[in-house]
Design a protein that fits this description.
alpha+beta; four-stranded antiparallel β-sheet; 19 helices; about 5% strand; LMF1/2_C
């Protein structure tokens, strides 16, 4: 690495460009499949209604909305699909490395296009897009635009900006935990987390059943990888002034530790594309000596990447100050462009898993003791006790994730009430988001919601019953609701 060209980070550039673009493909596919039912013209939280609310308000209200093409190009579900299709095609081309064969401004324009296209979606996403990995993908896509082309080494300043992104992501998450629940300080957090995380995976139960001492080591390892390791990502910078190759290896080892810890999270949970994208970012610290060669970098490219670096110095001050703040913000954006954000997750860990189970019946009298109540099945959310949690990440099941938040002390939210009504109407678009419709497209007469406490079965219980979960009734969330005569 020298002052302008990160010669030994060619592999890092390849992984960053193609990996980030691949996550964009997944994000656009997820949006195309789910956005219309959740947020479309006839969705649970219609995007056109949000746009109208913004347009009819004050200037301050209008500035609350992040940039989106739908502010000027009236939203329709077809136009949403057009944006997803165009963004997905360009992102797929970047995965294949086609724009990278041209001059550096070609991949730059392609990445900026997918960044703006996806920001147009996220800006309308409301609670269904209120996750930290949405901001992370947007920021990573913006930085990837300035990694350059295949015929020249990546710019040093951009590689360093990726380290700064990874530092904020990991160190921010570590500080949120240390400042958060006591369970992270007494090392008990992961005795609960594998069981109570939003969407467990196929190996989550096995991880949960590991001995207490192993879970304590997990927490210690988490603190080390998030609070100590991120500082060493910047070690290669010392090599610019001190000619010792060990600095580059220190950075590579730091990146490898981040990658290894994220692989464990991939194996034991479903956090959409958060872990996969963090793995991709971890490769930004991996240097391969001799993998690149010096090449002439166009002056205009030096000026562009230099301007991006200056922009980030200015934008990063709020995020830097947030890391040192006693009341640290988690997953916060300090500007309308989702750049130089603050990150963090799971400052506290839920101790008990409460699931809302939705059931319907075709009986005319919901109080009839002979009425048969059938349960709706979700794609990722726990429901049937014998079903092994599926592996769905990096795909993002937005409805399932929001269902996890509902029992955490919140009242019934508007979107959930609308969701229950759509089930009563047997809305085909909504039913496609589910794994199982017990009525095969017919309208139930009544729908109710009950709360259950879920826990993983012990090994002995599993051998005896074959069940993965044990659940006990907690209470009534929503009394039987009758299907409306018409919408």
């Amino acid at each position: 690495m020298d002052g302008f060209a990160a010669i030994d980070f060619t592999l890092a550039r390849e992984v960053l460009q193609r990996g980030i673009a691949a996550v964009y493909v997944v994000a656009f596919l997820s949006t195309a499949a789910q956005f219309r039912a959740l947020l479309g013209e006839d969705g649970l939280l219609p995007a056109p209604r949000l746009l109208e609310w913004v347009r009819s308000g004050s200037r301050a209200r209008r500035r609350m909305l992040h940039p989106t093409v739908f502010r000027w190009w009236a939203y329709t579900d077809r136009r949403l699909l057009a944006v997803c299709g165009a963004g997905g095609v360009v992102a797929a081309a970047l995965v294949c490395g086609l724009p990278q064969l041209g001059p550096p401004w070609v991949p730059m324009l392609c990445f900026l296009f997918v960044w703006l296209a996806y920001m147009s979606v996220v800006s309308l996403g409301q609670t269904f897009y209120g996750f930290g990995w949405e901001m992370l993908l947007l920021e990573a896509g913006f930085l990837a635009a300035f990694l350059g082309s295949a015929d020249q080494p990546p710019p040093t300043v951009v590689i360093v900006l990726f380290w700064w992104l990874l530092f904020r992501l990991e160190f921010g998450a570590g500080m949120i935990k240390i400042r958060g629940g006591r369970e992270w300080r007494d090392l008990s957090a992961l005795t609960y987390h594998h069981e109570t995380q939003p969407l467990p995976g196929p190996l989550s139960r096995q991880a949960h059943l590991l001995p207490r001492w192993f879970h304590e080591l997990e927490v210690i390892g988490n603190h080390f990888s998030q609070l100590v390791v991120p500082w060493f990502l910047f070690a290669p910078l010392l090599g610019v002034w001190i000619p010792w190759p060990g600095f580059a290896w220190i950075g590579t080892i730091a990146g490898a530790i981040v990658i290894a810890t994220q692989l464990w999270l991939v194996a034991t949970g479903n956090f959409a594309w958060l872990n996969v994208l963090t793995i991709v970012l971890g490769f930004s610290a991996v240097s391969v000596p001799g993998s690149g060669s010096p090449a002439d970098v166009p002056l205009y490219w030096l000026l562009i990447t230099g301007a991006v670096a200056v922009l980030y110095v200015v934008l990063s001050w709020p995020a830097l100050r947030n890391l040192a703040a006693r009341r640290q913000l988690m997953n916060a954006s300090f500007n309308r462009w989702n750049l130089a954000n603050a990150y963090g997750a799971f400052g506290t860990v839920t101790k008990r898993r409460i699931e809302w189970v939705i059931e319907g019946t075709e009986a005319t009298d919901p109080d009839d003791p002979h009425a048969v109540w059938l349960e709706y099945g979700f794609r990722g959310k726990p429901g049937e006790v014998r079903r092994i949690p599926p592996q769905v990440a990096p795909y993002h099941l937005r409805l399932d994730w929001l269902m996890w938040f509902l029992p955490l002390g919140r009242s019934l939210e508007d979107w959930f009430t609308h969701f229950v009504v759509r089930l009563l109407e047997a809305d085909p678009r909504m039913l496609r988001l589910l794994r199982r419709d017990p009525f095969d497209g017919r309208r139930p007469a009544w729908v109710r919601v009950h709360a259950y406490h879920y826990r993983f079965t012990t090994r002995a219980e599993h051998r005896r019953t074959g069940a993965v979960w044990h659940r006990t009734f907690e209470g009534v969330v929503l009394d039987p609701l009758r299907a409306p005569a018409s919408r």
